[in-house]
Amino acid sequence: MADLHISMGDVTADLPISEGTVRATGLSAIPTERGGLTSYDPGFVNTAACRSSITYIDGEAGILEHRGYPIEELAEHSTFLEVAYLLINGELPTASELESWDYQVNRHRLVHENVYDIINSFRYDAHPMAKLMASVASLMTFYPSSRKIADPESRVLNSFRLLGKMPTLAAATYRQSIGRHAVYPSDELGYVENFLAMLFQSQQRVWRADPRLVRALEILFILHADHEQNCSTTAVRTVASSGNDLYTSCGAGIGALFGPLHGGANEAVLKMLREIGSLDRVPEFIEGVKNGKGRLMGFGHRVYKNYDPRAKVIKKAVDDVFEVRGMNPLLKIAVELERIALNDEYFVKRKLYPNVDFYSGLIYEALNFPTEMFTVLFAVPRTAGWIAHWQEQLTDPDQRIIRPKQIYSGSERRTYVPLEDR
Ligand code: CMC
Asked: What is the C-alpha to C-alpha distance for residues 396 and 58, in angstroms, rounded to an integer?
C-alpha cells in the first residue's frame, strides 16, 4: 500500500492511500496556525463521503452501471421495478422474487385520504414539486413506526410504501392543479401504465396509454433511478445520518432535486428552447452563453466529462415517442444547439456534453406533461435510488452524523455594543 508523504517544516506525516483515497482525519495530526490540517472542498468536488456498492460512474469514459449492470442493458431489457429491486437488494431478482416484489410495491399504491386533503389545501397553481415534497414528508405522520429505523422489517415495509405511493402522490399534485379529482390506483395496470392513468384518465373506467409511450416513460424511469452521490441523494443521506425515517429523508431529497441545477434542469431546457424559438437564433444564443449570459441548460455535468450515457439512450426513445405523437419543432432547435456546441471550442475545452435532461423534457412534453411536472417525473423514479442509499447509509458501520467543517472567515472576537451606542 502506498503512502502520501506530507512534510511541513519539522512535521512529517505518512498517510496511507487505500481505495484511491487518504483518510481526511489523518490530516488533522499535522498542526497549522488554525489547528489540525483540514481539506477545503466546496461542493465536495473531490471528497468521498461514503463507501457505496450501488452505482458506478466513470465520468471520463461516459459509463454508468448499477450493481455492475450497464445502464444501456438495463434500459433495453429491464422494467423500472426490476431496476428498483436491483438497486435496493443488490442482485437481479428471480422470476418469483420479481413477481412478489411487484405485488408488494403495487399493493402499497393507495394513500390515506387525508394525504389528498393536504395536497388539495395548496393553491391550484403551487409548484407540484412543493406539493410532492410536503406530501412525502407528511407520510411520516401516517406511519409513525417508520421512525424505527434500526428495525429491518420496518425499513422494508416503508420502502414498499414509498415506492408504491410516489406515483399516486405525483399524479394527485397534477390533478389538483387542473381541478380534477384524484384517480385511485388500479390493480389492472402495471406501475408505469397506472401512473399515466392516474394522471390522464377522464371518463373511462380504465384509461390505457399507447404501449410505446408506456415503454418510453419506463425507459426514462430506469435512466433516472439512481446516480450515486448527486445533490439530492446527498441530501437524503445527510438527513438520514441524524437518525431519520425514509419519508423525512426523501422529503429533503425532493427539495434538493427541485433546484434548476439538478432535477429542475429539464424544465429549464424547455423554457430555453422556447425562448430561442427558431433555428436561426441558435448561433446568437450560443454566443450569449459564451459571453456569460446564462447557461446552456441540459449541458455539462459535475461527473461526466463525456456524453452522458443516459442522454444517448433518451435520444433513441425520442424517435419512438415522436412517431406516436408527431414531431415537436423544438427538437430541431435542440439538435442544432447540440451540433454547434459539440463543435465549439468553449464547450469542447470545458468538456460540456448533453446530459440526461437535454432531451428528456421533449419526451415529457410529447407525453402531454406540463413543464412544471418534469421534475416530479424525475423524483418518482429517483425514489428507488434514494431508498437504496438511505438503507446503505443507515447500515454502514463507518457512517456517523454528517457534519462538515468550515473555514471561519468572520470577525475576530469583539465586545458587545449596546443598541444606543451603535
Ligand atoms: N453552459 C455554459 N457553460 C457551462 C455550463 C453550461 N451548461 N456548465 C458549466 N459551464 C462552464 C462554467 O461556466 C465553468 O466555466 P469557467 O471554467 O470558465 O468558469 C465551467 O464550465 C465549469 O462549470 P462549473 O459550474 O464549475 O461545473 P459544476 O460541476 O460545478 O456544475 C452543472 C455542473 C451540471 C451544475 C453545470 O454544468 C450546469 O449548470 N449545467 C446546466 C444545468 C444542468 O443541465 N443541470 C443538469 C445536470 S444533470 C441532471 C442531474 O444529474 O442532476
From this structure: 24
N-term to C-term CA, the chain: 60
What CA–CA distance (Å, rounded) separates 146 from 156?
10
For the CA atoms of 164, 169, 170, 174, the dihedral, rounded to the nearest 10 degrees, stands at: 150
What is the share, in percent, of the chain residues with pLDDT greater than 90?
A: 83
Structural domains in the chain, sorted by start: 72-259 (1.10.580.10), 265-366 (1.10.230.10)
State yes or no: pLDDT of 249 exceeds 70: yes
pLDDT at 1 over 70: no
Active site residue 262: yes
Q: Whose CA is nearest to atom 34 of ligand 1?
A: 301
Give one word for 194, left, alpha or beta, with left for phi > 0 and alpha for psi -120 to 50: alpha
Does residue 6 surpass a pLDDT of 80?
yes
Q: Is 112 a known active-site residue? A: no
Looking at the whole model, is its pTM more than 0.85?
yes
- Closest Cα to atom 14 of ligand 1: 350
φ, ψ of residue 278 in degrees (nearest 5): -150, 155
At 325, list the grid cell: 405523437
Q: Distance between CA 170 and CA 160 in Å, rounded?
A: 16
How far apart CA 311 and CA 68 sit, in angstroms, is 19
Catalytic residue chosen out of the listed positions 262, 320, 389, 396? 262
Check 66, 108, 224, 301 and give the catalytic one: 301
Of the CA atoms within 13 Å of residue 145, those in its CB half-sphere come to 10
| Set 66, 245, 357, 389: catalytic member | 357
Q: Clarify whether 181 is annotated catalytic.
A: no
Three-state SS for 88? helix
Burial letters 212-221, b for 16+ CB under 10 A, else e: ebbbbbbbbb
